Each structure stands twice: as structure tokens, then as C-alpha cells.
Amino acid sequence: MMTLPPTGPLHLLVLTPVTVAAFGFFLPQRAYQRLLFLTNVVVAYLAVATFIEVRWGADIIELVAQWREGVAIKLVADQYSGPMVLLTGLFFLGTYVFSTRADYMDKVFLFLYMLLQSAILGLFLSGDIFNIFVLLELGMLTIAILMMYKKEKQAVYDAMLYLMMNFIAMAFFLLGIGYLYRTTGVLDLAMLEQRLALLESPRTVIVPYAMILTAVALKSALWPLFGWLPRAHGAPSAPGIVSAILSGVQVKVGVYLLVRLGGVFSPIIDAAPFFAVIGFITAVVGFMLAVAQKDIKLILAYHTVSQVGLIVFGINLGPDVAFWGGMYHVINHALFKGLLFLTAGVIIDQYGTRYYSEIRGVLRRMPIVGLAALAGVLGITGAPFFNGSISKYFIQQGLQGNLGELGLYIINLGTILSFVKYSTILFGPPTPEVKPARDPYIAAISAVFGLAILVGGIFGGPAVALIYGPEYAAAGAFGLDKVIIFVLTLALGVGVYYWIVLRIGAFLAAIREFKFNFNQVTVFLTSFFVVLLAYAYFAV
Amino acid sequence: MALLEYLDISDLAVGLFFIGLYGAMTQRNIIKTIMSVGIMDLAAVVFFMLANYQDGAGPPISGTPVDRMADPVPQALMITAIVIGVSVIAMCLATFMRVAYRYGTADWNILIRRLEK
Questions:
Q1: Which of B95, B101, B115, B116 to mutate to test the interface with A (most CBs of A within 10 A)?
Q2: What is the nearest CA distance from A179 to chain B, expressed in angstroms?
Q3: Complex ipTM over 0.90
Q4: Is A351 within a domain?
Q5: For A335-345, what is the mean pLDDT?
Q6: Which domain holds residue A296?
Q7: Nearest chain B Cα to A513, which residue?
Q8: Rounded alpha-carbon distances, angstroms, from residue A12 to A36, A95, A135, A434
Q9: Is residue A414 part of a domain?
Q10: How close, in Å, is residue B44 to chain A by CA atoms?
């Protein structure tokens, strides 16, 4: 028996960032920034220790303030939340170090950043559905302010639309919680699961089920409810670090809640086929919209939609190997999309433009940033030996000989297609007037993320076993057939890009310019609710 | 009138929720949609307050016999939800003010056309 590093109580993880940020606010800028760096180190340590405790020790359950179970606010670290906490702790530390010298790191920004960290950690650890509601609202308000931080262009409009869409979803969530409380009399997730299994007629809870899962589907940006995500993640007025956190960690809250809350209802309602189909549609629509964009941050943002669709597709397929493949893709996506957004922020600062057609030669101008971005691109397209290939291989294992396998190839082709477009910024002669970046923090963190993507690929099988527990052989992912398939898909992607995508510019412009207004988005939300309700009615 | 007798106040709260949703789906005026969403939020709060309603129960504070106390959980939770709702609506209205100054309209459709490309 190895000795485990000591952990504090779980509420320390949630409360440390926000408490230190609030009480240290009177300090001058420099001291505040150093204090928050130390806080981030402490939180990252706590996250690692909690993860180790959960992985090799036992699950941690904490009832805050010693109230009895069922009444107390409950914090839970288990097989699902442990890795997410680990990811959040390390990701925030990494992004913090990355932007040490950035000009947007003023006190208000730092405070909001720490508040968001508390909200996300709290969401992963919550074992109580009302707590989840409160923290979702907190995260939503924080993100809305961060979105309009630099007050550029249509930032305020984007933030307003984001707020209103999420607020409607949260009203659904709250009414759903009310129904659940009336039916079962508890809000604790574990007790809810027990009591729901005992219900005489499961149809009494399909309304709260549909309400809560509609809200969660909006949070995880599933088709047709993803309209807010590109606005938030690709917001021109948010610094790259904010986009990295939103795409890397925050959107995973939705996926995590889909697993968690879906699990609570699993004794009576199983909507996995429904969400697998929705996930597939999300993945396809996401990459189509990504190909149509010109703004590099929007390409990445729409691509996040596509990848979330792939993750939801994987975890709802049924076989365990596909489920863990999807869960591993959550971490992989955080690494490569986080890295791509961070580097995109630097690239935009250096070139002074966000349009892919005006950016060339990043590799020559900023070699480390460029190489890191290239590693991110290889990871996300599922190139052999990079981490994306492993999670996609696991998802594919769950689909052997199934029609869905074809779907997976389509998604991957779309990913490659949008990243052929993105990677044109890396090559070619650099635009002359750009000065090279000399920031050791940016270079170091980019290199760390890039290496993590490569290591997560080469040691893919052991990494899944280390992080989540179940062991699957990933050797097949390095086979010659996979390399050939990847090269063929890449060639097809490049071909499609140069022969088709470049010739339908007017059509793509029409897609890019087309926007739904708020009323239409609400109609989508209501339709999603009605369809899910009907599905649940017949599935029970 | 059999249907009316069958309904209770919780059903009215659900009705109110869907009236709010209808408003959010149909109103083109931004302020009206913000109000509609506010109505949805408050309807959810009303519904929650009535979740464990007992006739003749007293407030859950000292002085009331324990067996006659109303369920304190919905009350404690809903005070939180109300505060959150107020702050989110305030935030929506504040962002709307900025939007209205910048684009000079309170109509979702006209607003979309006036956004910068």
C-alpha cells in the first residue's frame, strides 16, 4: 500500500479561489497577481491530491457543515469527478502562467477568472442538484462579463443573447428541480437515484427529466441549441485565455452533467440512443459551420461544437470502450483545443487580425507557438501517435462493423477539412511587418501542452487506465492500417478543400452571415424539450 | 367546471411558466422577452414553493410546534433562486441598455440586421 498525499476537505477546492480573490482584492496589481499564482498552485496541488485519493484510495464524500445526508450540501469526488477536477486544477494553473505577462491581466479580470474557477470546480464536485443550479447561474454571469471584457464590436449583443438563452434554460432546470422535489422530496443526487427507482409509475418524472436534460443539452451545446457557444468561445472581445478555458473546461461541465444527471435517471429512463443521434448531428453541423468561417477563433469555436457532438456520440453509444473513449476525448479535447485557443490569441495579437486569409507563416515567425499549434492540429485531426487518435480509436472500437463507423469517418473527414483551412495560417512566408514574440511563459506552456498531446497519444492505453481505471489495449491505434486510413482521409480532406470548399465561397458566406434571432432560438429550445418529452414517454 | 376544481395552484404556476415561454417565442421587443423570461423564472419559483404544501402549516421558526411547521427546504432554496433571478434580469437589462444605445432599436429582427459584419 503506497501512502497517498494528504488532501484537505473538498470544500477547500471550491472556496479557496473565490475567497482569496475576494479578500486579496485590496492589494496592488502586482502583489494580487502573485497571490493568485500561489492560490492556483495550491488549488492545483489539492486537485492532484484529490484525484490520487479517489483513484487509488476511496471516493470522497463530504457533507458540508455536518448536516445529515439529504439535507446537507454534498460534495462528491469519485471516478467521474476526480479526473475532471484534476483537469480543471492543472488547466487553470497552465493558462494562468501562460498569460503572466499579458496586458489584460488586471484586477477585475483576475477576480472573474478565479470566480469562474470556483464555479467550475464546484460544479464537478456537487452531489446535489440545487447546488448545480446555483453554480451554473454563477458561471453564466461570470462568463457573460468575461465575454464583453474588451468591449469590441458586437460583444454586448453576444453577451445579451448568451445570457437570455441560458436564463431560459435555467428556468427549465429550476422547474424540473421543483417537479423532482415534489415527487421525491430530496435533492441529493444519490438519494434521488434510489427513490426514482422505487417510483410506481415512472411516467410521473418524464416532465422533470425532459426539462432538466433540455437545460443540460443547451449547456453542452448540442444541436440545435449550440447558438450561444461560438458567440461565447469565439467572442472577439474575450482574451485567448478565456476562450481556452471555456472550450477546454467549461463546456465539459455540460457533458459531465449529461453523464451525471442521465445516470440519476438511468433506473427508469434511458435516452442514450436519442443523445447518440443528437451527438452525431451536432458533430456534422459543427464542422460544416466551422468550414464556413473566416475568423480563426470562430473556426475553433464551431469546431468545439463538432467535438462536443463527437464526445456525446461516444459516451451514448453503449459499449464501455466507446464510453471511456468519449471520456478520454474530454481530456484530449481540453488539451488540444485549449492549446489552439491560447496560441490563436497570441497569433491574433501579433498579426493584428483574426482573418485566416491575412495570416501566413506562423511557423517561421513564432516557431514554438507554431509547432505547438501544429501539435494541436495533429491531435484534433486524430493523426497517429497523437492523443486524438486514441480516443477516436476507442470510440470506433465500440462501433465495429456498424453503420456508425461510417459516421465516425465522416466526422473525422470534416475535422480534417476545417483544419486544412486552419493550418494554412501556419505555412508560407510570414507577413513582413510582424515582430516575433519573446515571451518565455507563452513558449513554455505551449511546449508543455504540445508535449502532453504527444505523450497522451503514445501512451494512450496506459493514460486511460491511469486516469479513469478501465484498461483497454490501444495498440491497434498505431497499426499500419490506421496510418493509411489517416493519410487517405487527409488527402481526401485536402482535395475536397481545394476543389470544392474554395469554389463555393458565396454559399459559405451565406451560411456565415445567416443568424437566428432570439425568438427562433427559443422555438428550438421548446421543440427540443417537446421531442425529448415524447421520446421519454415512449422509452419508459 | 370539473376541470377547474381539478386544477390546483401548482398547475397555475406551470401555466404561467408556459405563458412566459410563449412570450419569449413570439415577442420581438427585447424588453418584453426579458420580462417573459422573468415570468418563467418566477413561475418556477412559485411552483417550487408549493412543492410540499400542507394546509394549516405555520412558518418554520421557533414558536410553531414541530409537527405543524411548513417544509423549510423550498423556502430556503427559493430565496436563493429569487436573488439569482433578480441579478440575472438586472444583468440582461443592463446589457440591453448598452445594445439600445449602440444600435438604437429594441427589436430582435432589426437588431440582427444592424450588427457589424
A1: B95
A2: 8
A3: yes
A4: yes
A5: 87
A6: 287-503
A7: B117
A8: 15, 21, 16, 45
A9: yes
A10: 5
